[in-house]
Specification:
Chain lengths: 507, 482
Amino acid sequence: MTLDHVLTLLLVVPAVGLIPLALFRDARAAKQIAIITTFVELVLSLVMLSQFKVGEADFQLVEKADWLPSLGIRYFVGVDGISVLLVPMTTLLTFISVLYSSGGAIKQRLTEFMAAFLLLEIGMVGVFISLDLFLFYVMFELMLVPMYLIIGIWGGPRRIYSTLKFVIFTLAGSLLMLVGIVAVWLASGDPGSRTLSLPELIAIRDHFSGEFQFWVFLAFALAFAIKLPMFPFHTWLPDAHVEAPTAGSIILAGVLLKAGGYGFLRFALPLFPSGTQVWLPVIITLSVIAILYGAAVSTVQKDLKKLVAYSSVAHMGFVTLGIFVLNSQGGVGAVLQMLNHGFVTGALFLFVGIQYEKTHRRVIADLGGLAHMWPLYTTFFGVFVLASLGLPGLNGFVGEFLVLLGTFQFGGAPLGGLFWGPLAGIGVILAAVYLLWMFQRVMYGPVREAYRALPDLSPIEVACAVPLLVLTVLLGVIPQPAIAIIEPSLDRVMKLATDPTFLVAMK
Amino acid sequence: MTSNDLVAIAPELIVTITALLVIVVDSIIDHEARRTWLPALTALGLLAAIVAPNAYPMVGLFFGGYVNVDGFANFFRAVFIVLALFATLVAPAYLERKGVPPGEYYATVLFSTLGAMTIALATDLITLFVGLELMTIPIYVLAGIQRRDRYANEAALKYFLLGAFSSALLVYGFAWLFGVTGSTRFADIAAFLKTGGIGNGPTIVALALVTVGLGFKAAVVPFHQWTPDAYDGAPTPATAFMSVGPKAAAFAAILRVLVSGMGPLALDWSAVFAALAAITMSAGNIVALVQTNTKRMLAYSSIAHTGYILAAVAASSAGAPAGAAVLFYVFAYGVMNLGAFACLLYLDLEGTRGATLDELNGFGRREPLGALTFAVFLISLTGIPPTVGFVAKFLVIQPVLDAGYAWLAVILALNAVLAAFYYLRVVVHIYMYDAESGAPALVSPRLLSFSLGVSAIAVVALGILPNSLYQWALTAATPVLP
């Protein structure tokens, strides 16, 4: 049985969930409505995945409708191998966040919290399925306001500073991208035939001059680099993560950061091949700096949540590195890294949150000996830590390995793959250092009296962690199905990005 | 004068009759009845005026060519009426609370709207000037209508003095223009300038005087100094109206006179407009950043919005899309800015004062619906989708880039980030701080909540489905900017 309009339904379901939420305004009802809505959305995204034909490179399940016909702007959605896995990842992490938050982590204004999450889900799913730049921009910004409220209302003591920093940084990037989008629209043809649909833009991209690509790529890259975040635009991230409530951190790290990496792959690379070539050395250098810097800074963090946040900077460095070495291995590795980082770092933030709810401590020095009281917690947390540092057999390894493989093969730029590959490899080793050292200090050592009576994982917490654990192991042991889905579409993007006939001579 | 002439200006006639009726009825009925009947009468009259041109669509030149009913005029008529209606519906409870005579409030709003509508219809300098004065003089009254309040008096006086000054400059510029071209008709002026060109002293003097005069009315930096004090001191419903109505009318005049009438000069003049736009939006935003009183903050931010609209005016060489961007932005700005000011009416404060940021603490809990609409208006003013404010910014950036002002588009984008900082800081105070013990009392009149709710829904709906409004703006802009 096939379900028509499944992508549109994915955008409609959370919106429908908002209606009863607004009508009942009761904490208990809000929990149930939000859990049911996000669960339906999760199931729907799996139906979508099951309808996806593996092995085809082009967009599938496409839906089109006129939106602003006088401007050639359309409602245009579709998925390919790059986005089709990111959508279920988003719906799963949202469901887990909602489930965990309904277990008592959020104590005030629950209805509003759940409403913000449903609104956020529309934006997140929309970002991954939009094929019209205008629609993409709307969805990209739609993620902003709910997250702003989630950090600002339900966050920690410095939440207001953090949330404003998050919004201002992100807006600065995305508004410049808006100028870039309008420039692309104007360059797409004569008045009356202009468009913002991705496939049509790719077809006419040889109209984009070298100088044009230089500037517009920069405008897009700034937005994505801030969202990702790339070094040196990462400074909003630790603040936002530390102050965000657990569910907010899970979504922020798990999904929102991916919008940046995804944006590079979906729009910047295929549309501006010569812009990509010009900026590539800069981005590769910044990626490797991010990997090393993120790892080094993580090592010296005193705060557990900040440590995980900085480790995200390093992990995202692998994503941009994999994308910009412009070959199949690197690209597939980058997409896998996005997925894996979503599951694993989402899980790490979940566990840091669970731990904080119990002990009310996040400074590593205040913790210790937790393994003796919490065997279940330790097992789960241990697996996710190992996955995060890239242990073979778990999912983190596959992505990072492929990215490194791609990097070694990389022949362009000033220094080549044999220079960048080993440097990035050091990042993997450093990850083992800071993660294992953290695990040792937090979980082992003498039991502290203050924590002796604290309970292990509750059933609801186990329910949240199990799907993530299963995926972590599964994607680590048999990554082949995922690679088979990603590869054809990714090769297509890489071909578009490196096609010599389209590389406009730079002025 | 034929009967066709009268049918063509039916909306103006209806507004005039309504205004006169309000004055008459005000003097007959008793105090209690005024509270409900006067706003009802005003609203009905405005609704009739908005329906009239649809019932008998008349397009063309009337009154011997002195009245031009085209798509442009109809668009602005609708904008002015909608804004007047909005300003009418949010006011009753405030007027009652402050002891402002309601009859005078509604009548002045109606007369001012009539003046604004006349501007949209004008085909010559004299009709335009009469319309401009008819629009502005009631606003002077409106600013000082709380006559026992010190700040309202200051606001009225400042507004009156600077308004009179700018009118004088404008009429002087019109005189020069007449002297140069020998006609007061826009069409004749345009034809003369097309052959004569800009390259002579008197034309430049005329152009400069008209630009400065209209710049005062629209609050373009450096002619904006009256704005913050006038907006801050006027009674809040009046501020809400005067921050949008006269500004929309000023842009109608700018499009009719400077862009359409002096069309041939637009190319030479547009660099000046681009510079003024950049200065206006940056100055407005930077000063708004440091305000702690929301009313004053919104006053400065309205200057920034003038800058955004002016950027589209500067891009008039891009043709109809530039005009459409101005019209769309004027409408969007009108609804969201009036709404944002009107949200301050929930707080019962002494005099004409607006709420400080701290006084808004906990507003989200104390008045959930009002806070939600306030947040929607602020997010729309920032330009974040899915709101009409975002579409308006998108539409402005497009002709600006097309006309070759990439630097202006980047400045506009960066300004929107600055604006985000102070708009969202208000949202922070509404939702993220708890109310303190000395928090001001709240009033929640049903009519206020209803009209704010409807317009907030409109702001979001037009942000998601902007096509019909854009189409309308595009057709409306064509007569002025083909």
